[in-house]
Design goal:
The protein has about 325 residues and is an alpha/beta fold. About 35% of the residues lie in helices and about 20% in strands. The protein has two domains: about 55 residues, no CATH class; about 230 residues, Alkaline Phosphatase, subunit A (3-Layer(aba) Sandwich), CATH 3.40.720.10. The longest helix is centred in the N-terminal third of the chain and has 24 residues. It binds zinc ion (2 copies). One zinc ion binds next to helix 8.
Length: about 325
């Protein structure tokens, strides 16, 4: 190869480098979303990783690599391109519900989980202040807890009943997949205890647990009155673990907005269902949710890394 060609090759390589560096730097610098858990505590950080885990750390340092990746350096580990970070996270998480259930089973208490879909922590607090949760507000204040990402029902519900983050449940989306980890219902059954789920018109997670499905028989635009009636019958002789999943607050929130009068009025209906169910039941009760919701146009959505979506209440009545 002549000298001329070498010079030409060198110029081409130089040009490619310049063009690609210009391309990298012309793109916006990738940033990581940071949301505040609480103002008053210093609990460190919760980092949501791309593969669906939640890692806790006391210290971190965020930087951008030359290839425009976000690098989060912590004392014991490094995370590349996290989904987001919660600064001062609450010390409770949706994955703690499993241990709460197992503790009850250990002490031979039966347990009722009342699951109000879409009720984020901020809306729970707001609804109490506005008088839409008259019964629930008489109970001990719910703990603020983190949910998992993406903040959609299939993913978060699976983490609620397995105690594992999506990285370990394998459920990262609405795609139906066989669960590889045990649920609270599997563990209850291994201990000779019975479980049941009272659901809407379809199962959320493919599982062996007995599930009672409901349809909107009276065509009043919600299945929750039917779910409530089924639950009240079940409560005459409840299983050791009973989970009742209400959908209407989430449905109305999507349609009209999570803080709309329509959604909040429906929440008040659910509050009365909760009151009647709790008074019929002797055992431990957990009232909780899977994710929150934020306003979009005239309706509501969830699934994003926003504080309105990512925090849920966990209310316990012994
Ligand atoms: Zn949901
Ligand atoms: Zn929803």
């Amino acid at each position: 190869m002549g000298k001329k060609y070498l010079v030409l090759l060198f110029i081409i390589i130089l040009l490619v480098c310049v063009v690609s560096l210009t391309f990298i730097y012309s793109k916006d610098v990738r940033e990581v979303q940071i949301i505040k858990g609480s103002e008053d505590k210093t609990n460190g950080y919760a980092i949501y990783t791309e593969d669906g885990d939640v890692l806790y750390t006391e210290n971190l340092e965020v930087s951008n690599s030359i290839l425009n990746n976000v690098i989060v350096k912590c004392n014991d580990f490094t995370v590349k391109n996290p989904i987001g970070i919660v600064d001062n996270p609450p010390n409770k998480s949706i994955t703690d519900i499993k241990d709460m259930v197992l503790k009850s089973l250990e002490s031979n208490d039966s347990i009722l989980i009342i699951y109000i879909d879409g009720l984020g922590y901020e809306l729970y607090e707001e609804s109490i202040n506005l008088g839409y949760l008259p019964y629930i507000s008489t109970l001990e204040k719910g703990a603020k807890a983190l949910t998992v990402y993406p903040s959609i029902t299939d993913v978060t519900f699976t983490s609620m009943v397995t105690g594992e983050t999506p990285k370990y449940t394998g459920i990262h989306s609405r795609d139906k997949k066989k669960l590889e980890v045990d649920t609270i219902f599997d563990i209850a059954s291994q201990q000779g205890k019975s479980s049941k789920i009272i659901e809407g018109n379809m199962r959320i997670v493919i599982d062996e647990v007995e599930t009672v499905l409901n349809i909107d028989e009276n065509k009043n635009d919600t299945i929750d009155d039917e779910i409530y009636e089924t639950a009240m019958i079940e409560l005459e002789n409840p299983t050791d673990v009973l989970l009742v999943h209400f959908h209407s607050y989430d449905d109305f929130g999507h349609k009209y907005g999570p803080d709309s009068t329509q959604a909040l009025k429906q929440l008040k209906v659910l509050d009365s269902y909760v009151e009647n169910m709790v008074s019929k039941f002797s055992g431990k009760v957990i009232i909780t949710s899977d994710h929150g919701m934020h306003n979009v146009g005239n309706g509501g959505e969830h699934g994003t890394f926003l504080s309105l979506d990512m925090f849920i209440p966990i209310i316990v009545k012994e």
